[in-house]
Design a protein that fits this description.
The chain is α/β, with parallel strands linked by helices. The protein has helices spanning 14-24, 43-60, 73-80, 91-101, 118-133, 158-169, 180-185, 190-194, 206-216, 225-242, 254-269, and strands at residues 2-9, 31-37, 65-69, 85-88, 148-152, 173-177, 199-203, 246-248. The chain starts with a strand and ends with a helix. Bifunctional serine/threonine kinase and phosphorylase involved in the regulation of the phosphoenolpyruvate synthase (PEPS) by catalyzing its phosphorylation/dephosphorylation.
Length: 270
């Protein structure tokens, strides 16, 4: 059964999308057609969206689901009156929080992702630039300037994890790919050893690795199951020598892997 889902906001819609995705992830059996509708900040735009909701109802034979973060009462009511299942994601939290804090909310849209702290924003931009400049072991001499260094075989998830750590946590992240040279000598360069306190190793199931590599280089030795099994086995031997935390990316998302890394870093600091 297909259901159309609208993520609606007066601003970017990032909060509605994030919270909506989290809720829908609990209903894997359904087919959700997702529609992103940011900047619904006038009644005219709201009425136009209501018409799209009706079209979705006529097509699906079921009410569309609307995840919204709308602070304007008039626009919100227009959407509520539409033929939809409407969920206002701020409504249940703003007023109780205002009572607890003893102050009225500003009710300004877009505050969740606005640049309210320029220094924090600048830190994230610098971290992203660092991750891009130190990808795939390009500058091992920069590892001493990194907050995190990831190590792993090719296609184990190092680059996307580094970028996520930079974008969401402002961490300067670098990574080092294990190569045939490393496997032949059963060791890593001195720069990697020197970074052990900030090093995290990524591992992955050989079957999953084969699927990923096959998409990149179909039919190659690089993508063969035997090669994937050998690479992951030799990588594990190096991880044991380094004695560093090992995270399995087979069934964990980038977000989950990153949260484990951040937690480990904070525990070291504490």
């Amino acid at each position: 059964m297909r259901r159309t889902v609208f993520y609606v906001s007066e601003s970017t819609g990032i909060t509605a999308e994030t919270m909506g995705h989290s809720l829908l992830s609990q209903f894997e059996a359904l087919d959700f057609q997702q529609v992103y509708m940011p900047h619904i900040n006038t009644e005219a735009r709201a009425h136009a969206l209501v018409q799209r909701m009706q079209e979705a109802f006529d097509r699906d034979g079921a009410r569309p689901i609307v995840f919204a973060t709308m602070l304007d009462d008039r626009i919100r009511q227009v959407l509520r009156d539409g033929n939809c299942f409407y969920m206002e994601l701020f409504e249940g939290f703003i007023e109780p929080l205002a009572v607890e804090l003893g102050m009225a909310p500003s009710r300004q849209s877009g505050r969740s992702h606005a640049i309210t702290k320029p220094s924090s924003y600048t830190k994230r931009i610098e971290a992203i630039n660092f991750a891009m400049s130190n990808d795939d072991g390009i500058r091992p001499d920069n590892f001493d300037h990194a907050d995190v260094v990831l190590i792993g075989v090719s296609r184990s998830g190092k680059t996307p994890t580094c970028l996520y750590l930079a974008m969401h946590y402002g961490l300067r992240s670098a990574n080092y790919p294990l190569t045939e040279e490393d496997f032949d000598r059963d060791d890593v360069p001195p720069e990697v050893w020197a970074s052990r306190r900030k090093l995290f190793a990524l591992t992955i199931d050989p079957q999953r690795l084969q699927l990923i590599r096959e998409e990149r280089r179909p039919g190659s030795d690089y993508a063969s199951l035997a090669r994937c099994q050998l690479d992951t086995k030799r990588a594990q031997a190096i991880y044991r020598r380094l004695d560093v935390p090992v995270l399995n990316t087979t069934s964990q998302s980038i977000e989950e892997i990153s949260s484990h890394i951040v937690k480990a870093i904070r525990n070291k600091i504490d």
